[in-house]
Amino acid sequence: VADDLSLHKKGTHETVIAMMTKLASSTSPELLRFIASAFAMFAYILTAHDEAAADEDHQTQLSDEVVETILRLCGSTDTLVLKFGGITLNNLSQATRFHEALLRKDVASALLKLAESRDDEVRRVCARTVHALTSSDELAGFESECVRGIIDVLSALENCRFPDVINYCASSLFYISCMPNHLKILSTQSAILRRLFGMMRGGLESTQLCAARALCNLTCDKSCVETLLRERTIADFIAIAILRERFVRGANTLQLC
Questions:
Q1: What is the DSSP letter of 76?
Q2: What mean pLDDT is predicted for residues 55-69?
Q3: Which of 84, 215, 219, 246 qualifies as a cystine partner to 36, CB 3.0-4.6 A?
Q4: Alpha carbon distance 119, 121 (integer Å)
């Protein structure tokens, strides 16, 4: 009935969500796969429907119980349930009005489980979700602990070598570097700084540009300079910047270097 649901309004949507939430308490692996896939499809319909809604009164609300259920699906040991749980989070993250509820309920813990998955598509979905969450204004208003959780997810994605995933991570780190309240979390982590150096070395030009922008923001903070000095990485920083200046054709990246 997924296609038909798009023709209905808020009341019907919330009734169906309540039904799915109750069914998600089942211990049957087969039933959980059905429910997880239903949540994924419904989340897509929900965001598309709400974008078309004229005002907030016609937009479907997600209760804490529903959010907790979706996050619980992301902790499943069943690969299909895990994948559909991740797709659900990604679909919901495309609508910024769901960000507050997701962040408040510790979405980072669920995303970390996705990031640690051996399934490439699950990790790709995780990276897209993190990118969506960091690109909105909601995250900037949360406590540092929440932001640290998101950074932990990005760290768990470090060994993923897909260009699009690396690009999502670089962009996410740049967005966090633009948050004055949380900039120091990045600037004091030598592993993050080294990772940004690595991103500047190669790959997509958009990845190099995001990494350069993030480093440009971070090096304006005294604690970042202290970290670079303590870890003796100033020379690496200068060398990479010079190499980028010589080999990158993009004017924006050259200016940042």
A1: -
A2: 79
A3: 84
A4: 6
> How far apart, in whole angstroms, are the C-alpha atoms of residue 44 and residue 2?
10
DSSP H helices, the chain, are: 2-5, 10-23, 29-52, 64-73, 79-93, 99-104, 107-115, 120-134, 144-156, 163-177, 183-187, 190-201, 205-218, 222-230, 234-247, 251-256
The conformation of residue 10, written as its DSSP 8-state character, comes to: H
Closest CA to 108 of 82, 147, 136: 147
The number of residues making up the chain comes to 257
Q: What does the CA dihedral 226, 227, 230, 236 come to, rounded to 10 degrees?
A: -110
pTM of the model: 0.88
Burial classification of residue 137, based on how many CB atoms lie within 10 Å of its CB (0-12 exposed, 13-18 middle, 19 or more buried): exposed
Distance CA 90, CA 148 (A): 20
pLDDT at 252 (0 to 100)? 67
